[in-house]
Amino acid sequence: MSTPVKISSLLENLPLFGELSPAEIEVITQGTRAIQLARGDMLFQRGDPSNGFYVVVHGQIKLAMISPQGIEKVLELFGPEQSFGEALMFSEKPYPVHAHALTDCLVLHINKSVIFGCIDSDPTFSRKMLAGLSFRLHRMIDYVESFSLRSSSQRVIGYLLQSEDGQTGYDLHISFPANKNVIASNLNITPETFSRILNILSSKGLIEVNGKDVCIKDIAKLRAYEG
User: Fold this and answer.
1) Angle, to 10 degrees, between the axis of helix 123-149 and the axis of helix 112-121?
2) Residue 160 above 80 pLDDT?
3) pLDDT tens digits, residue range 163-204?
4) Which CATH number fits domain 152-224: 3.40.50.1100, 3.40.630.10, 1.10.10.10, 3.40.50.2300?
5) Helix runs in the chain, H state only
6) Domain spanning 7-149 has what CATH number?
7) pLDDT tens, 29-73?
8) Do residues 84 and 97 touch, judged by C-beta distance below 8 A?
């Protein structure tokens, strides 16, 4: 049997709701449900109606679509404290993609009616929602630029460095949140190309790869590499 989830405690720890009062958190709690998913479970399918948005508490969610040739294209990956589905909630259009759990997940679904009520009553909440949507837009622009203007090697290096937050130094350890096929699709390259680039970076002493674990040996050198 699943362990009971205290939704209010989860909500108050999310950046989006960090400035809300306990009373406001309780209002949102009434319109929120927790969804526990096992690896491989589908959260929603293309064409399903959007009646709210989602926040990942733990685990990894994949948004993807199927091409006319039957090939899956991974569009975005979402991890803890990341939200998705806000824009469609406002547009009231059905989902154009499907969402699957890459790992065991706990996801919150926040009903649009409670969100619209908060927006009507609290300008601060409105600004935070807009800031979140603006951030997503900029991230999408960066994503399109990354596979339109950058080489395959630059895309992989950018992916490896996305969590370094301006650091310099040695031996930065990261773990892939998904298998290499999923990450390669998200970077718009083939799995073979992704593996080849990792092997090249390893052979040059820039990284070490052990399954899903990667050690960046020298952040500055990897950032400067132009393979």
Assistant:
1) 120
2) yes
3) 655 455 678 888 887 888 888 888 888 889 999 999 999 999
4) 1.10.10.10
5) 7-12, 22-30, 86-91, 112-121, 123-149, 152-161, 180-186, 191-203, 219-224
6) 2.60.120.10
7) 999 999 999 999 999 999 999 999 999 999 999 999 988 888 888
8) no
